[in-house]
Design goal:
The chain is an alpha+beta fold and about 180 residues long. The chain contains four helices and ten strands; from the N terminus they run αβββββαβββββαα. It has two domains: about 35 residues; about 140 residues, OB fold (Dihydrolipoamide Acetyltransferase, E2P), CATH 2.40.50.180. The chain has a five-stranded mixed beta sheet with strand order 8-1-2-10-9, with no helix packed on it. Strands 3-6-7-5-4 form a five-stranded mixed beta sheet.
Length: about 180
């Protein structure tokens, strides 16, 4: 091991650490840009694992405790909440898609739709965070999940789990979703 008696030795070691760090960062950014690499937000509805492309979500946050019901709305419209001073409608995505709502627990999250015309929060059972894949999604196989077929864009297989790519943009174009009044 090098002794640290001489300030020039310390500076040389620090420069070497900086050089190696920059090389590592350059290698990571090249790896991130590999053709076929894909990143999305993973979430769960019941036992179904889904992905949304990063650009389709503004943010994710825990289910708020303060939710105001909306009278004369569809059952899947849970209510309104305030998000930094803006009113955010909350939709139970599981109830909308499958007709049943999952029990409320601490893992539930709200995914805010990133759409120029909609400021809407979708309640999901759990969010797994960013999921990284080394290839692009393959075509969707919606035979098992016919209720999701209009929204599925593909699927990926990782760690013994099929992840279905769910399009929030297709959801936002669905006339049934747009008609929240009962």
């Amino acid at each position: 091991m090098t002794t640290m008696d001489n300030p020039a030795d310390i500076i040389a070691i620090l420069k070497d650490i900086e050089r190696r760090s920059q090389q590592r960062i350059a290698g990571l950014s090249q790896q991130d840009n590999m053709e076929g690499a894909w990143t999305a937000i993973g979430f769960r509805l019941d036992n179904l694992h889904l992905l949304i492309p990063l650009g389709q979500s503004r943010e994710v946050f825990p289910l708020p405790q303060q939710i105001t019901p909306v009278p004369k709305s569809q059952p899947w419209v849970v209510g309104m909440t305030s998000l930094r001073g803006d009113l955010l409608p909350l939709i139970d995505l599981n109830l909308f898609l499958q007709g049943n709502s999952s029990p409320t627990d601490k893992r539930k999250r709200v995914i805010v739709l990133n759409h120029p015309e909609f400021f809407t929060g979708l309640i999901v059972d759990e969010v797994f965070g960013l999921k990284h894949f080394q290839r692009q999604p393959e075509p969707a196989d919606a035979r098992q999940h016919m209720h999701l077929k209009p929204y599925l864009q593909g699927r990926l297989y990782q760690q013994e789990t099929y992840w279905h790519v769910f399009s929030l943009l297709k959801l936002a174009e669905d006339p049934r979703f747009l008609n929240a009044a009962a």
